[in-house]
Amino acid sequence: MDAVEQTMDAEKLTQLAEQHQEPEWLIKKRVAAFQQMELLKYPKVLRFNYRNWQMASNQLDWTESNVKLVKSDLADTHLLQLGQTTISVNLPTKLADQGVILTDLFTAVNDYPELVHQYLMTQAIPTDDNYLASYHAAFLTSGIFLYVPANVEMDEPIKLEILQDSTQTSDFNTHTLIVAGENTKFSVIQQMNTVGNQDNLANALVEVIAKENSHVSISALDQLGENTRAYLQRRASVARNATVNWSIGMMNEGDTVGNFETTLSEDGAQANAKVVAITKGNQRVGINTGIKNVGKHTAGDILQRGVILDQSQLVFNGIGDIIHGAAGSESEQENRILMMSNEAHGNANPILLIDENDVLAGHAASVGQVDQTQLYYLMSRGLSQATAEHLVIRGFLGAVLTAIPSKVVRQKLISIIERKLADGHEDK
Amino acid sequence: MATLEIKDLHVAVTDEETQHAKEILKGVNLTMKTGEIHAIMGPNGTGKSTLSETIMGAAAYQVTQGDILLNGESIVDMPVDERARKGLFLGMQYPAEIQGVTNAEFLRAAMNAKRADDDQISVMQFLKELDKNLDLLDMSEEMTERYLNEGFSGGEKKRNEILQLMMIKPSFALLDEIDSGLDIDALKVVSKGVNAMRGDNFGSLIITHYQRLLNYIVPDVVHIMMDGRIVKTGDAQLAKTLEREGYAGIRDDLDLDVALVDEN
Ligand SMILES: Nc1ncnc2c1ncn2[C@@H]1O[C@H](COP(=O)(O)OP(=O)(O)O)[C@@H](O)[C@H]1O
Ligand SMILES: [Mg+2]
Fold this sequence. Notes:
heterodimer; A: alpha/beta; ten-stranded mixed beta sheet; nine-stranded mixed beta sheet; 21% helix; B: alpha/beta; six-stranded mixed beta sheet; four-stranded antiparallel beta sheet; 10 strands; 36% helix; binds adenosine-5'-diphosphate; binds magnesium ion
């Protein structure tokens, strides 16, 4: 990968961060990340070549967004950001009294320095994880901090609405840091959209630190715009007997690299990762979804389903990594892609890295076309070809859709899918 | 009254390996009207399924000669879904399984496919109709929330085909070996469903290998098919004669030169 032309330097970066009233530790973190960038590699996505994509810039600008561009729904527990501007936050007093923190990341670095210092890009995604993570740390523009202290359980999901402001040209390096204390139980809905249609980059990271016996469920609806080239990295670090469940609807309109990983760090940790993606037009999307079994008796389950239209490309890599010593662990994965067009390209690759004998591991993968006997059957009952195809696709995606815990998110995802199918072109 | 006319129908299929076209139907003539139940009997491999699939419009079957008319209009160039909306229904020998789509959702979509956009069936009306038919077919409500045919036993699939028939209410139902793999109780239930449909607005072409089904659904007309042609037509009595003499007997009576795969 070509190094980005450097007009940025450590001194300039320090000045920019100071101007932004950042604490010294954060400034040091930025500078260290900036300096190590060139030593690092882009994340590898097997069978997906994005070598000639420009994914990083050397700009860091503090901008204001026009709050009138969006209106927020104040009823729910939520945080809404547009670009670098926090539009609204709502955290019920009851939760605040229990010690729950939901705030803009740069407020948090000053108000809760110890917590943020301890967890920000140290444990789940260290700054030297890869080039793009390091770039993210150095050029961080915005973010959200959610802290749920031990023993707190929440019934209502917490909504994190993250809007990229593409009414102007600006980089968007947004970080979501979620810390789930011991014995907590809650769910998060993360929605990302783009406002405006300037060509921009997005580099969005989510870190989840799930402590002992916590249960966290995260539904993500990615809907970044057509003119956004995106790098999405989400990673959870899961402690003893804790569970993290991901449901990710990768519905971006533009080129995207997705890098999703969960590390089952301690005994009895569990995770499942469900990903659904639709690609159309000339879009190119490469996604790694991995679960790493480190602790004993850990269990990971990956389920990916994609539908590809037009001339688009989608690569699903499922990565099951069981390290030596993770005895009694399980690693399951299924990656399937349905081709709705002969000009579309799909790859579904199960990758199993197993360095332990006492494990259960299974995988399935396929790239195929719509089953003609299914279509014939549905059409023989009077359904039009388009309706029949939609039902078959819905059925194909059903395994992932039905697993999404929030009915609202599920419905929303289904309607996005319907719209994409209606817009995209299929051929026979 | 609706009519279905098959005129001098010749149908070929292309062998996937050799790419050779093989003629399966060699001039079939048959006319039926709503209000009538016709049965087609014939030995295995004779072209019964080919006939029903061709009427429905399955892609594998090429009409090389002749015509199929529904209410006087040729349907051979019509897509499958349009034929269905015009009143044809095929109860399949091997119904497809579709995961992720519930039976109920599918039934509603199928019923609505025929109706105008501003005249879609209401939920109440749908459920009322569904309950009535489930009851008649001795099916549990739970079946309708299961995915379409997924994991259904052979008998459940056949019942489900009849449930669809009763909900969709076509003018003509082609029922291909709806009796195969059914025990006597299931056979009675399936027959009850078809008999409930009998009336001036419904006609059926029942394909079967065995006479047994015709004890429960008594046909008005029986056709015997051999080697891609209808070789004899009669009333319900003909099925009984066939039961006694076997296909070989009929063949010899008619002095036909046809090899039977399964002489019985
Ligand atoms: N889709 C098909 N492709 C190739 N050959 C077929 C196909 N369908 C039927 N045939 C052939 O046509 C002949 C008649 O089959 P079929 O119509 O299924 O008979 P029946 O239903 O009377 O047992 C058989 O030789 C069968 O192998
Ligand atoms: Mg047959």
